[in-house]
């Protein structure tokens, strides 16, 4: 499994392009600069199968304003239904103040806790982790024979967690989501929505928010 990180937009959102040995690929959280993403896909002769959204905040979704990027996946866009209103009806005045233009989309598919998706040899398991938003999810991704990693969106960062003071945020729910993540193997590599990567083992030792 190959993982390419893109630091996108004014908030340096981590977008991730995951591909298998056959050139099948998925993209997690297209925040902006989709021309760069598409160029990379074409140069490396990948076939983009899906766009996966860890949650609905504009700094993770605004790249979908680019119709040509959406067309690459023919409607295979996934988001938890509890955050779907954010991509159906984005709050334009707020988005513009933050420097984003996103008019919304209506073609998407719902993610549910425990869902398992396949794109070529890329295997995705959905873990619902509300707290940062009501519909936040983490994505456990691997191959039939290969590494497995956790893409944590804004639920878990290196030695920190996502904020819960925005609409839909809930600190108690976030704590429960961390408890759920604590049952995963500690050797898991974690690719967060902002900042550097980490491992669950390091977070168990160093993250002050980790359940004790």
What does the model show?
With 212 residues, the chain is α/β, with parallel strands linked by helices. The chain has helices at residues 34-43, 58-61, 67-71, 84-88, 92-97, 171-181, 200-206; strands spanning 2-8, 13-19, 24-28, 47-52, 77-80, 109-111, 116-119, 122-128, 137-142, 148-153, 156-157, 160-161, 189-192, 198-199. It has a 6-stranded mixed beta sheet with strand order 1-2-3-4-5-6, with helices on one face. Strands 7-8-9-10-13-14 form a 6-stranded mixed beta sheet. Strand 3, helix 1 and strand 4 (47-52) form a beta-alpha-beta unit. The mean pLDDT is 94.
Structural class: alpha/beta
Major sheet details: 6 strands, mixed
Give the end-to-end Cα distance, rounded to a whole number of Å.
32 Å
Q: Strand arrangement, largest sheet?
A: 1-2-3-4-5-6
Global Rg: 16 Å
Helix content: 10-25%
How much is the average pLDDT?
A: 94
Q: Care to count the β-strands?
A: 14
Uncertain regions spanning at least 5 consecutive residues = none
Strand content: 25-35%
Order of helices and strands: EEEHEHHEHHEEEEEEEHEEH
Number of separate helices: 7
Given the C-alpha coordinates, what overall shape results?
A: globular
